[in-house]
Amino acid sequence: MTLVYVLILAALGHHSFAAEFDGNKPLTLKGVVTKVEWQSPHIWIYVDVKEPDGKITPWQCEGGAPNALTRQGWTRATFTIGGEVTIEGWQAKDGTHTCNAKSWALADGRRVLAGSSAESAK
Amino acid sequence: MKGLLLLVAILAQAAALQQPDGPAPRAADGKADLSGVWNKALVQNTAKAVEPLPFTPDGLKAFNDVWNHIDPTSRCIFPGVPRVNTSPYPMQIVQTPDKVIFLYEYMHNFRVIYTDGRTHRPLWEPSLLGDSIGHWEGDTLVIDTVKLTDRTWLDDHGDRHSDQLHVIERWRRMSANKLHYEETIDDPKFYTKPWTVGWDIPLAPKDWVVMEYACTDNNKDLYDGHLQNGPLDGSLRDGTAIGKPAPPRR
Known about the structure:
The complex is a heterodimer.
Chain A: H1 2-10, H2 17-20, E1 21-37, E2 44-50, E3 56-62, H3 66-71, E4 84-92, E5 98-106, E6 111-113, H4 118-121
Parallel strand pairs in A: 3-5
Antiparallel strand pairs in A: 1-2, 1-4, 2-3, 4-5, 5-6
Chain B: H1 2-18, E1 36-38, H2 57-64, E2 91-96, E3 99-104, E4 110-114, E5 131-137, E6 140-146, E7 166-175, E8 178-186, E9 195-202, H3 220-223
Antiparallel strand pairs in B: 1-2, 2-3, 3-4, 5-6, 6-7, 7-8, 8-9
């Protein structure tokens, strides 16, 4: 448990969550991964989200640093293109389909805290 | 006698269980060896323990002006000294008889601190990491840094410093698994007197190595224009920073 806590703390930093994202607008997105950017300073996962009316909306979500996620056992290959992912996070203040992920969950049940910059603002 | 030895052995074992940590290892030259990978955690508000800070008028103005600026590290500018020590992610220390080398994962910064008795360089333009020299006081490595620019911030809270900043770091390995860090902020332009803060840094798990953190690789928040002004911890500035810390955002 301590180790997990340390890992989460170690994943913070770099830019302001409070300035960019709205902590009062939590969201849960379920979508299909279309692109993975596994690079510093933060990973970005692009997903197509199916709306209730069948319309597809592309979203982009930011997570923790690749090094911090790697230490938690996650790699680029953990996210498969075409695979399903459920993201809990917060939407950008600018209203675009951009989010800051608190956690990623895969269809097989694996889940990781994103180690996003939001953690530092909470 | 045998019984006494057995008792001593049992007590020693119990002590070992209580303190699996052990004493600080020694280098070949007898000094405490700081070498290792240390799990340096993020410290957002480094000044918290000594607030309210002894601001000069210029210092208070700079502190309250943070909401008019993007944090320099968000644009991938080096955290600088001393913020490099309180930024997230591990660091490795490599100690030799005449120098101590700091390898920071965050932004791939490194510092070579000579402990061979040399003095500050006469020709050195102000820079992000400044000009550092070290010396040993017993088992404590003392690093003195000058020639720093005012382009960096002290921490995620938006604590500020001027170009008159002089930093004294004190690094001491308290035990095999624990490093103690202390920084003194001596900046007569922004603070009426020096202030000192410190905390422990744990040794990283055995299999950890310093990894890549190339900030400019894909700084999408910058490229897409998402970055906005303010300190990374979201703390506000109400202009009354003397007497109480900045209020939390929520």
